[in-house]
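Incident review: delayed structure delivery

Summary: a single-chain prediction request sat in the queue longer than the usual turnaround. Root cause was a stuck worker, restarted by the on-call engineer. No data loss occurred. The affected request and its eventual output are reproduced below so the record is complete for anyone auditing the incident later.

Affected input:
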Amino acid sequence: MDRLGFLDAFTAEDWQGVDEVIIDIARDHPTALTESLERLAGAVGRERVRLALPALTRKWEERGLAHKVEHLRAAGWRRWEAANLSAWTFLGLDAGASGTGEIDLATDWSVYALNRMAARQLLGMGVTRFALSPEDGLANIKPTLAEFGARAVLIVYQDTPMFLAESCAYANLIGGCPGKANCSFERMDMVSAHGEAVTALDYHCRTIVLNQGPFCLSPRLGELARAGAVSLRADFVYRKYDPAAVAQRWRLVRAGRVVPGGHAANFDRGVL
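Output delivered after worker restart:
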């Protein structure tokens, strides 16, 4: 998730069996982020918290991100997730090395592991686990699940971005940018040229377009277990959820029940 407040409605039962909580560090100021992470660590244990680097960092954002990573590493955070190969540079690692030393590094789905050779390459680069792509299909992931077991993480709930644009959809709509201080744009619903209902969200003055319903495989947990899936993950990123809604959807997913508006994307068709 990218907002620690999403966890505010979790109960002790919601934490049962949770292996780790992954927090995207891009949104919050380093001081506020550190304070929130310490509170989370007090609740679930520092060894169950992993910090995620963003998939996209522009040149003008590098300095701030590097400062944040340095600040968090100095505070003792050693479990990280890479969404891009640039993470090795931000974390001071050698991408060609066979280990990551003091850092426990995982990869997100955007570091594509679409076959077993790619997965082996990531493990050879010191990665301890890797997330499979929500764009992939069941037939293709079965050999990977069979070979790598718990190290292969299967996402079963996510608002997968359809695309990300550097331009602001709202500014384009009104004919100009009103400036950050005067802008109230958070989201708007649109219909694509293909007739799809989509949601455009502001994300640091960028536009992220999401399907109005989440990618969700919760009704298929039994089938996934038979296919060899051990590590399952739910993402609550980009969309501004109410904490109670996060807890409710988390419980539906864990119970194998249908989440309203959920869809299976390419899971049956596979990657074309």
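Verification: The CA atoms of residues 116 and 144 lie 6 Å apart.
Action items: add queue-age alerting; document worker restart procedure.
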